[in-house]
Amino acid sequence: MSPTSVAVVVPVHDEAGLLDRCLAGLTAALDHARRTHPGVRIAAVVVLDACSDASEEIARTWPVTTVRITARRVGTARRVGVGAALAELGDPPPEDTWISTTDGDSVVPLAWLSHQLDLGASGADVVLGTVRPDFSDLTAEHAAHWTATHPRGRPPGNVHGANLGMRADVYRHAGGFPDLDEHEDVELVRAVHAAGARVIATDENEVVTSGRFVGRTPGGYAAFVRHTHDRVRDGVAEQIR
Questions:
Q1: Are 34 and 40 in contact (CB under 8 A)?
Q2: pLDDT tens for each residue of 172-224
């Protein structure tokens, strides 16, 4: 059975330069999901974590709920966002509820949420989606290398909080997002794997994320982009996530 309630969470820390694009894509994807899945209830929450720029003002121009925290931890931001979204939905039955997350520097495609809901309806407990860096942030050589090392139809099953979804009962059983500075998504998925959840990897509806070299966490996606750029520049081929 397809989930009837959806909690969507976007953690944000000083993303004023990218947030409008993120929320434009997200709003379009949520509207599309409402058309493809009539009757689905969606609560979208943007968690503003220790923002000192115009992120809050930007978020408030979009049809999302905003929550302010000062944790400076993306794991805490995702966890708080899930709680806020579920509360807004009236704490629906976990087995009928889906949780999706992306990031404030990322843009989801139109069918992003609809596809996750379809996979959930077909039996997936967790959906691991792929991401790619924004090619406009990369050199032509780096972009070509990324394309060559990521053949379509063979998703590696890496974990990205920017493109992640799961049923709420599975999320709760696994303990939710841990309060970590980074890799909270990896730790959560490790827990759901250990619990025997059915995890599906897909490269359909790939999310585009910033190709910047310096991210909000030392070991986040930006570190992989920077490392791969250096390897490509030095003539050493290596696949990134």
A1: yes
A2: 999 999 999 999 999 999 999 999 999 999 999 999 998 654 555 564 554 45
What's the CATH number for 5-127+154-206? 3.90.550.10
Let me know the angle formed at the C-alpha of 220 by 14 and 233, rounded to the nearest 5 degrees.
110
Task: Name which of 140, 112, 134 is nearest 209 in CA terms.
Answer: 134
Helices (H), 50-174: 55-59, 74-88, 112-121, 140-148, 168-173
Q: What local confidence, expressed as pLDDT, does residue 226 receive? A: 42
Sequence-ordered list of residues with C-beta below 8 angstroms from that of 40, at least 6 positions apart, any chain: 2, 3, 4, 5, 6, 33, 34, 117
> 179 vs 27, 77, 79, 136, CA distance in Å?
27, 8, 8, 33
What pLDDT was estimated at residue 238? 46
Collect the ranges in the chain with pLDDT lower than 70: 211-241
Query: Which value, in Å, is the radius of gyration of the alpha carbons in the chain?
Result: 17
pTM: 0.88
* Residue where the block lists tokens 């058309």: 35
